[in-house]
Amino acid sequence: MATYKASKYGERIKHLRQDKGFTQQRIADHLGWSQAEISQMENGIRVITLDNAVDIADVLGVSIADIVGE
């Protein structure tokens, strides 16, 4: 499974989340994760797997390309 440097993608996730009006807790609730996990991903503390990015993209209603910048 591919992993990506959380700082770059975490910043994109945070921006997309805020643009969509989502809180970290709302995303966490949708995915069965903790709010702390979302925070750690956004702040570059936790590595974001491709699967994580796909799950978050789905909740936000964006494409994976919006997160990875492709």
Helix tally equals: 5
Q: State the CATH topology.
A: 434 Repressor (Amino-terminal Domain)
Query: Alpha-carbon distance between the termini?
Result: 18 Å
Give the structural class.
mainly alpha
Question: Can you tell me the CATH class?
Answer: Mainly Alpha
Kindly provide the radius of gyration, computed on alpha-carbon positions and rounded to a whole number of angstroms.
10 Å
Biggest β-sheet: count, sense, barrel?
Answer: 2 strands, antiparallel
H/E series: EHHHEHH
How large a portion of the residues is in β-strands, by DSSP E?
A: 5-15%
**CATH homologous superfamily title:** lambda repressor-like DNA-binding domains
- Low-confidence parts, pLDDT < 50 over ≥5 residues? none
Mean pLDDT: 91
- Proper CATH architecture: Orthogonal Bundle
Strand order within the widest beta sheet:
1-2
What key attributes describe this structure?
70 residues; two-stranded antiparallel sheet; 434 Repressor (Amino-terminal Domain); mainly alpha; single chain; 2 strands; 5 helices
Question: What can you see in these coordinates?
Answer:
The protein is mainly alpha-helical and 70 residues long. It has a single domain, classed as 434 Repressor (Amino-terminal Domain) (Orthogonal Bundle), CATH 1.10.260.40. Helix content is 67%, strand content 6%. The protein contains five helices and two strands, in the order βαααβαα. A two-stranded antiparallel sheet has the order 1-2. Helix 1 runs parallel beside helix 4 and helix 2 packs across helix 3. The longest helix has 15 residues.
